């Protein structure tokens, strides 16, 4: 037997079953079984006391005692169950059978020392054990180990592939472990991290001798997964740094200095300064920058982007900045054009709705080099858009773009442009450490001074009148407000109708104030006009769907009212809330929900009320939704760890990451003799499997 041996040759399988298993579980080799880890374990090594029983739903435990009485009890419509009183020296427990035969009833031993094993049910504070396993032989009952329970299914069980089957097949495999696998981590590393060997780990993960062995085994298996995953990224990043050339931007010149000294309207925050320095250091080198800029909503990423583009310009290169929606692109264009008003730097906007004649001008100016900064949507990616010398590409709200789209930017210049991707959706630390390991990450962890924390409240629909009144007072103080309504795609027409109805109510209540509306069905020009009407301060109220979710910046708006807030995810709520609190005024976010909320919804509302910290919110979000959903569809399928849990195992991931960093620093090509096994294993195991593509 080797790891590659096809499963049909295993005892108890054969070609027929092998085919079935392959269809259901995808297993083809011994290795697939070996890495099919138990879901949980049952502990028959211990005997519990009935008197100590607490509610532990689904716990399977064992007692030692005597059955003192058996009775058939009628219940329901002519049905009968069998109930036995079971006692130990601390209490009594009912054993219950809902299905039984006369023969079975006669087999139940009375007044004899026995072991019973099974799940505990609780009903009105009374405990019972349905369908217990009964064992009179002490040796068999106290098997002394934890028994594995494998993730099974009815489909499998029906074909005899039940837990017992998996136990037997895998027990046969682990007997051969010394011939099947060898150590893949250097001894020094295992010693310093207190890791057990690979062979004992694989043994005790299936058949742990006790809890202590199990913990060591689990820790080793998890570490191994995290370690080789990080090694993959580490090697990729190293390779990128060694091989992807970039245009060095050594200069800080006139454009940057003039803007910085004369036109910048505020003092940069320390975080903005630090991040800018990190970017500068990258771009000085003849290596392509590949950097992720994370910063909570309102932290001032746009200014960092602009200053970065000015550095490119000072070094004789063009820049482009891409945003996921027309509104955002338009807004970036407006604010950047305004900031650059007194310079003679040329900026243009390219989106899906740019007129043909204007496009032609843009194309020409890009080719001649006359245009320094291009701002746009996906339209920038089209093949016809060619630059004279694109030196820098910035992607705002990067999670909205697919990998392929981002990759297109690389091809826009002979020497790939430096890439800066920006996101306001903070990624939980464990995810960032895992999935963005091949990017350099900068974080703006500070908001501009003078911002007041947004006050968030959770209200019910019945409170609407007081909410409306509160908002009116704010408008009277000179502020502007948002009303946001959810939009579900399946019933777009219905939602649209709702939106219009709500709009009517609002117009009626806020008589004398100007109301504008923004939703996905409007044409770009209409959207732009509505946005402009609100941004200019002429409209007091913006009624919108989530079109305004990302990036919209109107500093005078101070109240965000989110209707049916339970229909939004956490990161979306946080994004929406980020539309207020952008000026010096106290801002408010009001989450309106119905009375009946699921427990997840309640957690979401509570989290929003308790914190404004996007990183904390993202952690909760990951716990609620799981890492796959957080990463988004573009990278789904990458979180197929067998044992490692991205939510719970942050500590292991951190250790693995720093271990890999030290390893590659000391031995970048894994040439030291003590890293021989590691290298061989990696090459065999992970070659070609590195499917998680680069982020940009
Ligand atoms: P985000 O990081 O969400 O993209 P923006 O770049 O839109 O944030 O900035 C939010 C607001 O804060 C803008 O009005 C911007 O002009 C302002 N701003 C940015 N940096 C500073 C700063 N250092 N001091 C004061 N205001 C700033
Ligand atoms: Mg932004």
From TrEMBL:
Its EC number is 5.6.2.4. SUPFAM superfamilies: Nucleic acid-binding proteins, P-loop containing nucleoside triphosphate hydrolases. Plays a critical role in recombination and DNA repair. Helps process Holliday junction intermediates to mature products by catalyzing branch migration. Has replication fork regression activity, unwinds stalled or blocked replication forks to make a HJ that can be resolved. Has a DNA unwinding activity characteristic of a DNA helicase with 3'-5' polarity. PROSITE patterns: HELICASE_ATP_BIND_1, HELICASE_CTER. It comes from the Bacteria. The gene is recG. Keywords: ATP-binding, DNA damage, DNA recombination, DNA repair, DNA-binding, Helicase, Hydrolase, Isomerase, Nucleotide-binding. Residues 282-444 form the Helicase ATP-binding domain. GO terms for molecular function: 3'-5' DNA helicase activity; ATP binding; ATP hydrolysis activity; DNA binding. The lineage of its organism: Bacteria, Pseudomonadati, Bacteroidota, Flavobacteriia, Flavobacteriales. This is ATP-dependent DNA helicase RecG. InterPro entries: ATP-dep_DNA_helicase_RecG, DEAD/DEAH_box_helicase_dom, Helicase_ATP-bd, Helicase_C-like, NA-bd_OB-fold, P-loop_NTPase, RecG/Mfd, RecG_dom3_C. Residues 463-628 form the Helicase C-terminal domain. Belongs to the helicase family. RecG subfamily. GO terms for biological process: DNA recombination; DNA repair. Gene3D superfamilies: Nucleic acid-binding proteins (2.40.50.140), P-loop containing nucleotide triphosphate hydrolases (3.40.50.300). It holds the Pfam family RecG_wedge. It catalyses: ATP + H2O = ADP + phosphate + H(+); Couples ATP hydrolysis with the unwinding of duplex DNA by translocating in the 3'-5' direction. SMART domains: DEXDc, HELICc.
């Amino acid at each position: 037997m080797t790891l590659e041996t096809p499963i049909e040759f295993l005892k108890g399988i054969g070609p027929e079953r092998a085919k079935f298993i392959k269809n259901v579980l995808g297993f083809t080799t011994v290795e697939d079984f070996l890495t099919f880890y138990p879901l949980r374990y049952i502990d028959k090594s211990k005997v519990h006391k009935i008197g100590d029983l607490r509610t532990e739903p689904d716990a399977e435990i064992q007692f030692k005692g005597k059955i003192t009485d058996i009775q058939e009890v009628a219940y329901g419509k002519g049905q009968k169950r069998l109930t036995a009183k079971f006692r130990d020296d601390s209490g009594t427990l009912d054993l219950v059978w809902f299905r039984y035969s006369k023969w079975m009833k006669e087999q139940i031993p009375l007044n004899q020392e026995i072991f019973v094993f099974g799940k505990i049910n609780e009903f009105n504070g009374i405990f019972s054990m349905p369908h217990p396993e009964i064992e009179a032989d002490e040796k068999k009952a106290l098997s002394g180990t934890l028994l594995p329970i494998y993730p099974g299914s009815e489909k499998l069980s029906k074909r005899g592939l039940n837990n017992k089957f998996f136990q037997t097949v895998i027990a046969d495999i682990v007997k051969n472990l010394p011939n099947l696998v060898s150590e893949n981590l250097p001894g020094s590393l295992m010693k310093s991290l207190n890791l057990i060997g690979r062979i004992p780990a694989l043994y005790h993960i299936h058949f742990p001798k006790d809890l202590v062995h199990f913990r060591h085994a689990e820790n080793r298996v998890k570490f191994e997964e995290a370690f080789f995953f990080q090694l993959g990224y580490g090697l990729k990043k190293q390779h990128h740094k060694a091989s992807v050339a970039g245009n060095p931007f050594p200069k800080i010149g006139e454009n940057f200095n003039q803007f910085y000294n004369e036109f910048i309207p505020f003092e940069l925050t320390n975080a903005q300064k630090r991040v800018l320095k990190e970017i500068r250091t990258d771009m000085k080198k003849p290596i392509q920058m590949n950097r992720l800029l994370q910063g909570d909503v309102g932290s001032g990423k746009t200014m960092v982007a602009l200053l970065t583009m000015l550095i490119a310009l000072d070094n004789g290169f063009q820049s482009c900045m891409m945003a996921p929606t027309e509104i955002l692109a338009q807004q970036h264009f407006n604010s950047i054009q305004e900031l650059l008003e007194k310079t003679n730097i040329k900026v243009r906007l390219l989106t899906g709705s740019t007129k043909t004649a204007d496009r032609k001008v843009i194309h020409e100016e890009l080719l001649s080099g006359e245009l320094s900064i291009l701002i746009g949507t996906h339209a920038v990616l089209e093949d016809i858009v060619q630059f004279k010398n694109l030196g820098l590409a910035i992607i705002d709200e990067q999670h909205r773009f697919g990998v392929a789209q981002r990759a297109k930017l690389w091809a826009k210049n002979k020497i790939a442009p430096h890439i800066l991707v920006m996101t306001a959706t903070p990624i939980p630390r464990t995810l960032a450490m895992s999935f963005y390991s091949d990017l350099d990450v900068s974080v703006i962890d500070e908001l501009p001074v003078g911002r007041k924390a947004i006050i968030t409240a959770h209200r019910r629909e019945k409170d609407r009148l007081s909410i409306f009144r509160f908002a009116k007072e704010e408008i009277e103080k000179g502020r502007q407000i948002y009303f946001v309504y959810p939009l579900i795609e399946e019933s777009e027409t219905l939602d649209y109708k709702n939106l219009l109805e709500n709009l009517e109510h609002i117009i009626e209540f806020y008589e004398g104030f100007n109301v504008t509306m923004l939703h996905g069905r409007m044409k770009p020009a209409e959207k732009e006009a509505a946005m402009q009407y609100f941004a200019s301060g002429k409209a007091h109220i913006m009624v919108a769907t989530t079109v305004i979710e990302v990036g919209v910046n109107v500093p005078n708006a101070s109240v965000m009212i989110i209707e049916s807030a339970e229909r939004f995810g956490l990161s979306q709520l946080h994004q929406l809330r980020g539309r207020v609190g952008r000026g010096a005024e106290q801002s408010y976010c009001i989450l309106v929900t119905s009375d009946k909320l699921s427990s997840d919804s309640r957690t979401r509302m509570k989290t929003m009320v308790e914190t404004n910290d996007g990183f904390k919110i993202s952690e909760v979000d990951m716990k609620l939704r799981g890492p796959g959903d957080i990463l988004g569809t573009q990278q789904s399928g990458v979180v197929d760890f067998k044992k490692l849990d991205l939510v719970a195992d942050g500590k292991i991931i951190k250790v693995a990451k720093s271990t890999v960093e030290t390893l590659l620093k000391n031995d970048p090509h894994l040439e030291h003799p003590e890293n021989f096994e590691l290298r061989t294993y990696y090459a065999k195991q992970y070659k070609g499997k590195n499917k998680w593509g680069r982020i940009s």
